[in-house]
Amino acid sequence: MRYFPESRTRLLTLPLFFLSMLTGLFAQAQSQQLSGRIVIDKAKTPAVSANIFLLRQPAKTFSDASGNFSLKIPTLRKDDTVLISMVGYETLRIPLQAALGRTEFLLREKSKTLEGVTVKAFSTHDVQGSLSESVGYYRSWNSRGNGNEIGRVFQIPYEEYKIDKIRFKLNNMCDTCLVRLHIRTMSDRYPDEELLEDSVAVYVHKLTLDDKAPEFDLRDKDLTFSEGRIYIGFEILHCGFKPNNNCYFAFAGTDKGEYIYRVHDQKDWTAINDDYTIYIKLFLRY
Known about the structure:
Layout: H1 4-30, E1 32-40, E2 51-54, E3 60-62, E4 68-73, E5 81-85, E6 92-95, H2 96-99, E7 104-107, E8 125-129, E9 137-140, E10 149-155, E11 161-168, E12 170-187, E13 190-194, E14 200-207, E15 215-217, E16 224-225, E17 229-240, E18 249-253, E19 256-262, E20 270-276, E21 280-285
Parallel strand pairs: 1-7
Antiparallel strand pairs: 1-4, 2-3, 2-5, 5-6, 8-21, 9-18, 10-17, 10-19, 11-15, 11-16, 11-21, 12-13, 12-14, 12-17, 12-18, 19-20
């Protein structure tokens, strides 16, 4: 009888051990990482800033300058689908289970047909936005990549137009920051729907106002707009910096005017008028 307590202890311990194993396996099955590289058809050049997201779950990321990405899967669902998209290319749709077994994803260029389409020349150039080049202030901005967005509204006097470039000025004391562009419609006074189908971002290295102003080059996107009022905004996705260094990021402004911003934790937009707006220049064709 003296061995009974020991045997009982073993009987109690074994179920707890298996329960621990099952819990670990369940957690692993519920949360996985999808990683890989996105390339463009034929030449297999890296697809930069392509959107990667899930159809049935709130998970989204984008590819880096080498086409690489990593997406955390909240729950491993058999009915979910991975979508990869980029302007000018066909959206790639792959079942989640199949995507987890791949390391490379190929985007194909959209076929272009001009049958029955009247082609507009868009040969006249114009520049809209900031008039002065002399910076009057800095507007510091969060560089932690938490979804904050800041920008200004443009009144475009053309029925149809293309945006070739968007130039902005800043003072960046971080090593490298990734800035995402937003072009939105306007609903009354505040920004509304996104007009860009895919993520458009540019890397900005450490620079001051004396350096060349960074810009988004949209000429290869060949995007046509017809909205009379649009919002141009910037979002800092992330900034790289050494642990012991200070990381300071600020947008610069030159002219008086209104700017609009929102904080990620607060969905409402805030408009500030009777102040200096941030420097943005649009290079258009119409």
